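New to this. Look over this protein:
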Amino acid sequence: MALDSAKKAEIIAKYGRNENDTGSSEVQIALLTTRIAELTEHLKVFKKDHASRLGLLKLVGQRRRLMKYFKRTNKDGYQALVDSLGIRDNI
């Protein structure tokens, strides 16, 4: 269920500040959002996969913490990121 390298490189190119930027908050939030979407689709098919459900909850919590930090440090960038990813602003 991990992201393949081509999809990961595409996300990094879109949200990164430069081509080598893999650790900024924007990139991390975008990568987590993609993984969350894939896990959500997986759990729609395999409803009894509780191990993956726990992993999903951990990813959501990690993304929430990153979004909270990013909103506190860069409010305009946060709003643009939330709009481009299509996720709710509930922080």
Remarks:
- The chain is about 75% helix and 0% strand.
- The chain has a mean pLDDT of 94.
- The two ends are 27 Å apart (CA to CA).
